[in-house]
Structures are given as C-alpha cells and as structure tokens.
Amino acid sequence: MLTAAALVPDTALLVPGAGGRVDPAQRLRAAALAVVEAAVAGADAVVVVAPGRVTRELSGRVVVSLGAAGIGDEQLGWPAPAVGDGPDVLAGVPASVGLHLLARAGCGGPTRVVEVAPDSVLADLADLGARLVHEAATALVVVGSASGRHGPDAPLADDGRAPAYDEALIADLAEPTRQAQARLADLALQDARDLAVTGWAPWQVLLGSLGTGDGDVVGHLEHAEVLAGAQHAAIGWRAS
C-alpha cells in the first residue's frame, strides 16, 4: 500500500558542491528534503523510482555517484551513501540524487532502487507501481523533472510550448484529484520526449502504485522553479 510519495527533481545541483562554488539550488534542495522527510516518516518500506537508460531494480550494494554528470565525490558537500549488500552496482545520476536526499533526511532503513526507461510501455509502468507497494506500507521517492527546454540556459533548445505544458503538469501533480490523475496517465510520451521531460516514466509508476479504485491522495507543492533551463518541483503526496 502506498502511504506517501515525495516527488523530487533529478538535477545533480540538489547535492551541495555539484555546482562548484555557486550554489543556485538552495531553496529547491530544502524543499526536496522537506517532502522526502515527510514521505518516509512512518513508512515500513521505501522505494526510489528514477529515470534510467533501462528498466531495472538495482540489486546488491547500490553505489551512489554523480560521476556520469562529470561530478566527483570529492566535490560534494554530502558523503556518498550506499545501500544494500552484495556486489556493487552503480546507480544512475537521478537515482543517486534520490538516495542522497534520503540519506540526508536520515532514512537508514531498507531501501529498494528502481530505474525506469523513458520508452517503457505505459501498462508495464503501472504494473510495476502496483507491485512495488503490494507487500508493505510503502513510501516512494519519485525522481524526475518537467521540461528541460526553458530559455537559453536549457539543456536543449528553448521550446515555446514548455511554460504552458509545465504549468498544467505541476498543477496536476500538486493537486492529484481523480481527474488530475487521469490527465497525468494520458500524458503523451512523444510530447514528454520533445520537451525533455525526465519524469514521465517515474510518474506513471507512481500512478500505478495507487491501485484501481484506491487512488485518493492529497498533494501539496512545496516549491517549484526553473533552474538551469529546466522546470523542477518538490511535491508531497499523502494517501488519504
């Protein structure tokens, strides 16, 4: 059963030191930590769901690294955590951001880490969400961001559709009524690709975790901002 979820950005800038001497993400970081702390409080199990190149559950000792973003551990203001036991497996940058936030929030219990590919089949993502929360009262830390096509600092070229798309998207994520959930489930994968939306697949897993006929949740927007040309938001969900 899903008890709560923390929807957090996937930007490496949430980890202190990732931006070098400049730290533009202080307010966004504080908001992300707040929703993670609230989500995991009282949960029996925690699962990090993040975008990845392939869909997989990381088994073994999950090693956190921002190296794929060109950021060494020695640059960071937070020590790199590791979760689990067994052979080392390297988490991608988005999952690593989620695990950094969990560690900083003081969550030391068992944690599963799942990465989902951006081209995953919608029904498979929904089924995965249902399976992740089937056995215990579970909190999800859902990593992903809205459009990365805002202005000249964006990772990809500016797209005039991004502001309106993200405004509607964040409104639905922040107030996840049944109607909003339906709109989120109907988000077109091609539009998400075109607008460099990294959260599409993780959000579909989240919707699947609500279950058929049991999708009443309340949400709140902790903070949203465009940072380095991408729209990010920290949002909390609580099952009602």
UniProtKB/TrEMBL annotation:
Top-rank lineage group of the source organism: Bacteria
Name of the protein: Extradiol ring-cleavage dioxygenase class III enzyme subunit B domain-containing protein
Source organism (scientific name): Cellulomonas rhizosphaerae
